[in-house]
Design goal:
alpha/beta; 2 domains; globular; Nucleotidyltransferase, domain 5; 9 helices; 6-stranded mixed sheet
Length: 234
């Protein structure tokens, strides 16, 4: 099975207000393994950011001024994702924006769901963890995926993290071979990474607050069981 883990960054929250895509990041998986092929582009949106959106991505209009338009990279993007299963967190958001971008190119372009099937990892997470926070950051913490280097939203970095989260979420498998992967890739179309060998399992960092909460929980168990606690024997 060929899957494309996809993320976008935009100038605002709603495409219906003429907000545009400013970055696309994709990572290819074949049979749940990274192939090393990625698609990554910054895009000139030809409009201002909405208040707050620029702070989320860290991108500026000055940086994007010499980047290609969506029309310039559309064919390469569609060729990369055609026929795959797209794995997207909160898919309605990204699909809505990408369909809008395609609609601006004219009637000759099919919509995203006509080109690829879509799997929403947010819906998967809600089924597995009902009533809990299921943002990408929350899932990274819950599933032991190291996202300490994620200070700002970036499409390629978020696609990498989502790939790890998705595999852990669906199979308890978090080591998917991103050893040596760098979030800052050349700003071209498809990039082939040199070495996609399996890397070490991410290390979970436990805060002092979490340790204190754990200790308090064990003490509560001891009080209910007459001083006995299974973890004391570990």
């Amino acid at each position: 099975m060929r899957q494309i883990v996809l993320d976008t960054e935009t100038t605002g929250l709603e495409w219906k207000k003429n907000n545009r895509v400013v970055e696309i990041g994709c990572i290819e998986l074949i049979e749940r393994r990274p192939t090393g092929r990625t698609f990554h582009h910054y895009i000139n949106p030809l409009r201002e950011f909405e208040p707050g959106a620029q702070e989320v991505t860290g991108l500026t209009l000055e940086f994007l001024a010499d980047k290609p338009l969506f029309a310039d990279i559309a064919e390469a993007f569609l060729e990369f994702i055609d026929g795959a299963e797209l794995v997207i967190h909160n898919a309605a958001f990204d699909i809505g924006f990408l369909d809008y971008e395609l609609s601006l190119l004219g009637d000759g372009y099919k919509r995203m769901r006509e080109r690829a099937s879509v799997l929403d990892s947010l819906e998967l997470a809600r089924q597995r963890y009902p009533g809990q926070r299921n943002s990408l950051d929350a899932l990274c913490k819950r599933l032991g995926v190291d996202n300490a280097h994620r200070q700002l939203h970036g499409a390629l970095l978020d696609a990498q993290l989502l790939a790890e989260v998705y595999l852990a979420l669906t199979a308890g498998q978090s080591e998917i071979g991103f050893a040596g992967f760098e979030a800052e890739q050349p700003r071209g179309a498809a990039v082939v990474l040199a070495d996609a060998t399996l890397g070490p399992r991410p290390r979970v960092r436990v805060s002092e607050e979490e340790l204190a909460a754990h200790a308090a929980r064990l003490e509560a168990i001891r009080k209910k069981t007459g001083g006995q606690c299974l973890w004391d024997a570990a």
